[in-house]
Each structure stands twice: as C-alpha cells, then as structure tokens.
C-alpha cells in the first residue's frame, strides 16, 4: 500500500510520463533546457516535503520543503504548480477526507505563516508569474521572503493570497475546493488503459475545457485561446495530438497549469483506486 | 542536496529513462505486460527500504522492505536486481566510504538474518532465476522463507549465499567489491550529455563486455552470446542500437543484469557528482 506522499510522488511521475501532452515535456519530448530527467529528479526531491505534509507539518512549511527539494536539478521550475495542489490534497487525505470539503477545510485553516512559506518557496526557483495588479507590488510573489513583513502587517493567510490571485488556475482550485481536480479524477477512473495514457487524455480534456493561465502568462492570450481550441479539435478527432505536441513544443506553447491539474487529478485517482 | 536514498531512487528512474537500451523497457519502449509506469511505481515504492538502508537497518531487512514496496504495482519484477546492488551501496555511502573497500565491508558484515531477509524478498515478487545446482535445492531462492531454517542450520550469511550464486552477475558484484559498478560509474562521469543518455551508453558498454546472466536464464546461452556480440557491433558503429532495441524487445531478449549494473553505476556516479 503506497502512502499518501508516495501516491503524490507517483502522480508527479505519471503526469510527466503521459504522452502526447501538447506543448509539455512528456515521455516522448523534451524542451531544450528542460528535460524529462529534470522532472524525475524534481519528483524525487519533492518527496520529503510531501511526507512532511502527510505527517501534519503546516501547509506552507511542507510546500516550501517540497519546492526546495524539487529545485535540486538543473532544469529550473519543473513542478511548483503541481506541488501547490498536491500539498493540501495530501494533507486532506492524511486527515481522512480527500474530498472538496476536506481540502477546502485544509485551505481555510491556513495561516500567515503558511503564506510566508509560500512566498519563501519562490526563492528556491524561478517561477513564471503574471505581473501583479497595479498597486499590489508589495505582495508580488517574486519578492519572496521580502514580502513577508507585508503579509504579516495585513494578516493575510495563504488562502487569502490565493483569493487575490485572479486568473491563476491553481489559485482557483484552492479557492473553490479543487472542482476541476476532483471532476477529472473521476474521468480518469472511468477511462481505460495504462495510467500515463489516461493522464494524457485528461490533459487534453482539461486544456479543451479552459484556457491555460501559464500559456497566457508566457505566450500571451492569443496563444492561450489557440491552445484551448486546438485541444478541442484533438478531442473531436480533427487534429492529431502527436502532431500538435511537436508543434507546440517548437513554438514554446507550454500549458503548465493544465499539467498541474492533470497531476492533481492523477493523485486523487490513485487515492481512489487507480491501479498502476 | 539529495540524500543517499534519494540518489538511489533517482538512479532507478534514470536507468529506466535511458534509451535505447536494447531489449529493456526504456523511455521509448514497453514490454507487453511490463511497462514504463511499473518501473516508476517500483522506484517510488522502494524508497522507504532505501531510506532504511541509509539509516542503518540491516541489509537483509532494508532489501526486503525495498522489494516489498517495489512490488506494489502490476508489472511484476521491475527492480529486484537493482535493489540487491543499491542497498549495500547506500549502506556504504551512509557509512562514509562508497568505494570497493567500503561496500566489501558492508557485504562481509552480513549475517544469517540478512540472508533470511534476502530469501523472504522472493515471496514478494516472481524473479526469474536459474535452477540451483544439483543437490542444493534446499537453498533454492524460490523456496522463500521456507529455506530459512536451512540457512540457519548451516549458518550461512548473505555474503555466503552470494558466494554460492555462480554465474549470477549481481552476485559476482557482491563477491568482488562491485568492480564493474565502480568502473562504469567513472566512465559515466567521463561521458558527456544528459544523465539518461549516459546511462544508455553505459548499458551498451556493459552488455558488450560480458554476457548477461538474465538473458542466459530466460532466453538461453545462444541469445546471451548474441546479445553481447550485437552490443559490441553497436559500439563499433556496425549496428544501430535503436533498431536492435526494437528487435530485442520483440524477441523477448531482456538484458536485465546489465540494467541492474547500469543502475548501480548511475547511483555511484550521482554520489560522485553527476549533475542532473
């Protein structure tokens, strides 16, 4: 029987192994400076932080530890967003209630110290984020630990920070009880075949369902719209996802948020009995 | 900084990710019932046993725990042989002497209880092994825990058991201070490029250097000779390893022992500074 932390680590590995996932590193494709083995090392490195989450460490502390371990490879940011979703899910599972209500309770219970851990995590790795709204630079995540006094002065919890992250698909999961994660987990369980193949199909469904925030930030709104439309065309059989995967990697269109939610959904599916 | 156990887990993942490795599951190829994700789950599952080895648990106990965790997937035996090499290496590294002398000291210090742990590990998973020599059926590893009274009656340590395993390439490493492992680790460090590619080249060199015992057991001596010769032809540029990989997977020629030593060499290379 795998532990909750082991299921989370396996979800990280199954996510990156699934192919084709248009635009992402997968079993068949690398980016130039971000390769498959960076994700393998990132998963191994994050395991101690995931175990801390399972053992009841505060969410911010466990998340920072997971990100610090993940960063011990030369590819840069591999799984920051995945871990932001996995840590509260693992906490909810360890508390015996891996459900929308259970994970909502974990998120609602976060503190200013958790928010500080989240900010400190940005010091371990470069994360592509959107510019903060006008007038909120004091809380720009890129400030890392420098923003902690401001968090404390305002008494913001990690849940508050997520509530302010408009347009970020992972923050939306945090705010709303992980609805896409749980819905997609059920679709993965209803699917057939090897787990990585199910993950790749989940990725396409999620991308077709909603524009990817990471693509919007890194490649612009036009690319985000295109990625969604072409994922839908793949689902409708009008495009070949293998061909699209090659094209998106070449053009640097990288639906990272969609991969994060795919990973979170694989984790929930593993906890609910997906066999590997 | 990865721990010794984390480096060992990463070595398991890098080994299976390296491609082409003629005849083996790799990043580009699955066997029919033994797929890439089984190795991912096997690596995750073995991590607790590897941590036990690092923490000073007896070799046999740590090995059995690693194999039990590894077996929690539906592919069957994925990394039994890798773990047989990794556990004493991790112990040697944790003791501060990852060298031929250091690992020899670990092996020499094994007890009858360690031998019993090794035998019990065979109860967790089906391992393809050669028939024991005439008159030694009482110590056939396939008897699992049933052989333990015989081990105890004869006072055999795990090192003694390995000394009796003629013709097994992993047992030979145990007996001789892991000479191929350490030599290949240096070649990996002298090589260039991504770690999985270095692993794939190490696999070919090792296969060209000595006939694979697992191929001999599962496909016969003729196939073992052919595998070695054709690996040599790949190194000489007379054969394309990609083509050979496809052919060997199709014919079921699976150089498992060579993969085990490749994994052990990747582990030593990681400990000696191979960057990922």
From TrEMBL, chains A, B:
Please tell me which top-level EC class this enzyme sits in: transferase
Listed GO molecular functions?
A: glycosyltransferase activity; triphosphoribosyl-dephospho-CoA synthase activity
Is RNA-binding given among the entry's keywords? no
What name appears for this protein in its UniProt entry? Answer: Triphosphoribosyl-dephospho-CoA synthase
UniProt keyword terms in alphabetical order: Glycosyltransferase, Transferase
Can the keyword Glycosyltransferase be found in this entry's annotation? yes
Listed Pfam families: CitG
What Enzyme Commission number(s) apply to this enzyme?
2.4.2.52
């Amino acid at each position: 029987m795998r532990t909750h932390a082991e299921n989370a680590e396996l979800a990280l590995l199954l996510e990156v192994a699934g192919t084709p996932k248009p635009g992402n590193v997968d079993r068949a494709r690398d980016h130039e400076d971000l390769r498959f083995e960076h994700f393998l090392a990132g998963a191994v490195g994050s395991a101690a932080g995931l175990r801390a989450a399972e053992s009841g460490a505060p969410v911010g502390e466990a998340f920072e530890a997971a990100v610090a371990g993940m960063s011990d490879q030369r590819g840069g940011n591999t799984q920051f967003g995945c871990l932001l979703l996995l840590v509260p899910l693992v906490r909810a599972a360890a508390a015996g209630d891996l459900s929308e209500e259970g994970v909502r309770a974990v998120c609602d219970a976060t503190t200013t110290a958790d928010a500080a851990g989240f900010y400190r995590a940005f010091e371990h790795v470069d994360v592509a984020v959107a510019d903060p709204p006008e007038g909120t630079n004091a809380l720009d995540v890129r400030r890392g630990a420098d923003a902690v006094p401001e968090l404390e002065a305002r008494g913001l919890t990690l849940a508050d920070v997520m509530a302010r992250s408009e347009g970020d698909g992972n923050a939306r999961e945090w705010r709303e009880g992980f609805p896409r994660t749980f819905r997609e987990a059920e679709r993965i369980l209803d699917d057939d075949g090897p787990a990585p193949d199910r993950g790749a199909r989940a990725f396409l469904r999620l991308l077709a369902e909603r524009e990817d925030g990471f693509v919007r930030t890194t490649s612009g709104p036009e690319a985000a719209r295109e990625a969604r439309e072409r994922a839908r065309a793949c689902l409708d059989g009008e495009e070949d996802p293998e061909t699209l995967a090659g094209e998106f990697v070449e053009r640097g269109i990288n639906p990272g948020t969609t991969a994060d939610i795919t990973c979170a959904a694989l984790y929930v599916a593993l906890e609910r009995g997906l066999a590997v």
